[in-house]
Amino acid sequence: MMRCTMCGREITNQDANYCDYCGTALGDAAYREAQPVQPATVTDAPKEDRVSTWLFLGAMLLMFVPVVGFFAHVGILLYWAVATSVVDSRKSFARAILIYEGATLVFTFTIMGAMLAAMT
Ligand SMILES: [Zn+2]
Predict the structure, then answer these.
(1) pTM value?
(2) Segment 40-83, tens digit of pLDDT
(3) Rounded Cα distance, 81 and 59, in Å
(4) Residue 9 alpha carbon to ligand 1 centre in Å
(5) Residues lining ligand 1 (ion), CB within 5 A?
């Protein structure tokens, strides 16, 4: 004999989806109502994030490929920084890297220039 989880009354009809007395969902109906409805679009966001992590890593590692790697690296970052189709998080990250690398380059050349000037 089945018993209603809400009001505790015995359910005489074993196939009933709802309690005759209080209307609480039973059996299959209760199971269905307990499942959260997940919109299909929610699963897309984490997937995109995972892919961009590897894309970023790939773009950063490109720098270590001799000659062409550096230009490919800067090219990809420049593309991400300006392309309208690129997601905002990637765009701002690419800009941050470009600014950081630009500043590092300027700093390095300044130090090298100062050292060369000191030697002569
Ligand atoms: Zn009930």
Answers:
(1) 0.47
(2) 555 555 555 555 777 778 888 888 888 888 888 889 889 888 88
(3) 13
(4) 6
(5) 4, 6-7, 19, 21-22, 24
